[in-house]
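Figure-free illustration: sequence to structure, shown twice.
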Amino acid sequence: MAAATAALQAQEKIKIEKLDDLPRHTYKVSGKAIDLVKSDEAFARFAELVRHDIDADLAKFDIQDRAALRNLHAPLLYFDVLQGKDDAALEEMKLLDGLEEKPAAKLTNGLILKAFIAARRETKDAPEPGAILPAFRRDLEAELSTLPYEVVGDHIKQDKSRMEIVSETLLTAVVDNMIEPAVAKTGEVGADSVLPIAKLRFDFRVGLSLQKDAAIAFQAYLDSHQTSKADIWAGRSIALPKEGKYTPVAIGIWDSGVDADLFKGQVVGGIAFDLESKPTPELLEPLGDVKSRLPDLYKYMKGASDNDSGLDSPAAREFKAKLAGMKSSEIGPFIEDMQLCGVYSHGTHVAGIALDGNPWGRLVIARFTEDHHLIPKPHSIERARAMAREWQETVEYFKKQHVRVVNMSWEYDLKEFEGSLESNGIGKDAADRADTARKILDITRAALFDTLKNAPDILFVAAAGNGDNNVAFDEMIPASFELPNLLVVGAVDQAGDPTGFTSYGKTVQIYSNGFEVESYVPGGQRLKFSGTSMAAPNVANLAAKILARKPDFTPADVIAIIKKGATPVPEAKKAIPLIDSRRTLGLLDD
């Protein structure tokens, strides 16, 4: 009877097919965002309202998407911890573990919280305020000692690195630059800000005091495991010779611009558009007065990358010292400069990966302009139509240049459109913004889908995205498209294990290395970047090499041979199709 009742209740719930089906919740904020985060009374009232809405949504809706469920339950975990509801928090942790499929994330999520709860219980009768810290470190070390390094090592390095750069100044800057702008313009925060606010509250109240001991525990774990994960990619890669029976292949890099000087002799064309989707001559984004700071920004980018990788390099130490010496008001402009440098570098980095080891590759550059500001130019229906025209013109240019493979390391989704409206204070309320964002997505989705569909002779290789989400549920474009000439790529690390950031879903058909991939940035320096943005051009690289050997292959033929040549890591618990360039090109001789 109980099982039948539960089944009936589940049937009565409203089934959620996509993220847009969920209701929008907003929460009024009196004063500034920092007051909400730091005020006991304001945060308690906020947490109560949020909990009510989450509980109501879970009771009303049948939500099968794991990422959406994690986003609903994670704030409840932080609320429970902050309110001293340890048993409830531990139950939430179990539930969240059950919703996590990636092995490393399943093992490492909530480590700090779990150790803190254990230490709080052990020392609840201790009179000394600092008594919890030794217990916390012991409990964290005990938790870490059970974890397999080959699975969680990179995650622990990244966690340790975060512990070393987080400060009250940095946390304040995050609130002031990421949450306050929307609060100042709308007087409220949306549901997407709930989890960040809960985490910030924990960090201000508890996390900062645990920071030093957590970093020591993480370092001790890393020191006891000096081995590195095996790198499978060198054995799977292959370079084409400069001579032989090969055909030049035009590869389109549809991205933020490319330093054409680095690929002399291989660049055969280019087209570019500004932020208004108007044609512009610059194939590489103009930097203005930031150009003089570029050497320092590259240095800090390398330091940030080294720090994320757990390397105690001079660049990493300089990056941490730079952050530590900044005022809260200086961090926002610094982040914008770093983001501009990232946008400026992105397309060149992607191009270097796509052309690596292929003297037959010919580069066709298609630059769009990406807004690097923390509060970007708002999306609109007019801008969506302009983007649609830009995309159509770009693909028509690819056709005229006889491009065979196009790399698309970018994506849009409803959440981005809605967020840009909220941060700019556009729309009378959340429902109005949701309606406008829906119209923007519908325009851009239809335009991009039709544009790719109407170029059947071009293979488009798209990045899945870095949101650790289901691309179909979140309606990400182009990653959620199903087209015979589109291949969507997820990211794994050097050993072939899924990265914590990679998005996924039924349209994500192949995986490649997207962790600390080295390539060029404008000017010729080489840096390591991570993301599905790096995984996609690895696949575009293989596709172009296949076409250099088999110029008569259709996009469907290329996709089929890439899938046929893909092999999972033998010891992986879940077989993920990983590209194998050496094996795939060998199949062409069969």
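We now fold a second protein in the same way, so the two outputs can be compared directly.
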Amino acid sequence: MKRRHFLALAGVLGIAVLLAGVPAGPRTSPAAPEPGAAILVRDACTSILVGKNASADGSVMTTHTDDCGVCDWTWRHVPASDHKAGSTRHIYHISQYKTWPPSEGLKWDIVKKDYAGFDIPEVPHTFAYHHGMFGYMNENQVALGESSIGNRPKMSNETPSAGLDLTMLTMLAMERAKTAREAIQVMGSLAGKYGYGFVDEGEMLAVSDPNEAWIFEIMPVGPLWTPKSGKPGAVWCAERVPDDEVSVCPNESRIGEIDLANKDFFMASPNVVSLAVDMGFYDPKSGKPFSWKRAYSPQEGSAASTNGGIQRLWRFFDLAAPSRKFKLETPNMDLPFSVKPDQKLSLQDVMEMTRDRSYGTPFDPVKGIRGGPFKNPNYFNRRQPRVIDDGRAEYTTVTQCRGSLPGPVGGIVWICFGSQDTACYMPFYAGATELPRSFALGDHWTFNRDSARWAFDYTDFHVQVAYSEAIQDVKAAQDKYERGAIARIPEIDSQALALFKKKPSEAMKFLTAFGLNNAKTVVDAWWKLGDDLLVKYNRLYIYDTQKRTYERGKPALPDWWKKAVRVLDILTEPDKK
């Protein structure tokens, strides 16, 4: 390419932005991390927590956007079980990220080949639960969400001495806990005894039940630890979200100063401070109070200083409590642990938060020409800024724990596959004894029409062509199937409760059938929606299948895009001989 043409191409983007009449936005560089600081986890998950008095219906809610892009998306149900005295529980190494070709079998069968080399004493009875990459909800309405937060490098322990990883811990919590506090104690005590890490580093779990929501953070204690050391094999801390407040974890440690005397709001491992002192992360003689996140996983910078790289924390608080007018320049570590929302959040509000793309903010992914002629947020969001819904989710969950109903009826995990903006949440009660077979199938590398996930990816793929137009069709489908399911929940609750009072097993059959039938309806609808979008927007026309007509030149390209193309044509015209 000739130099003149290269310079023209470099400049046309700025000209097009001016033609669009949109400011270029912040251009600050990411802040450099302090020596030994935790590595910024950008390609991972967001988890929202809502206290029972901060929700419109009195439920405790948590979410998990399982953002990965190449990970396993399959789900299964694990039934309750009784165990003989003296029996043991096998422990396996389960990577969050590893997958196998479908031809080799299902992940949750294959992982049993990766035996960790030890067993732990089994409990007399283990509870039923639903799980995907992690355990998400059991029959007691104990629920989880997850977000990776990292830790200081010298804390990592990838050796076999770290017997437990995060996925294994969540499964054990689901099997053994009746409350959120019990789940935290189960995970904390087992990790302390058998060691934590191996395939995982610093992690946060949103742990909830019908009464409480907790942020639980756990980290390894370094590669030199062994069970024979007599010291805990993990360090962990948990802080409760006030009942009338909401919180979020966007891949950053969220717990600051702790008060272990306040047992209603704090729990921690016995080494919570001493490990930081031993590793040189905290000097008790400094006169400064101990801060968990500053000691073990500091994340410097703000939404503004990182050009939106870590803007999700600011964005959530801005959505939940706009009256507080949180500033973009406020360092993330100075933002509060939780806030009281301006208005109580409904289930639909929380679902929409998981779909947020920071539209209308300085980090809007479609401002200027970033989204192309059809305002597609996926054109730009693989770079900065990092938004809540950035299209890489394997699935997203919203859990509801409702104290007004018995466990099997009160708990619901809502699941949507793929990118939240083009998918549909489907409800599964805690008492359901089966998940759809289609939820257990498929991976990123093999197209499979028997896999539920592929139905949503199929629709998502066809939305990308003419996003601003096609997303309206998706929203109409979401209104019908997602909002339709939400509207039906009170009726389902009532029928299930009546059955539960007479015969709990009949209620569980009813709830199972509801979840399976609804999911089949939605998955079938999304396969059809993908077909319909292909036909409707074929060749960038709009085809009316009822009238058997089409509109040429539709969807219409905006004038600013046409102007930008003309400018580019002029600037890149070959030299005249």
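Summary for the second example: The first strand starts at residue 47 and ends at 50.
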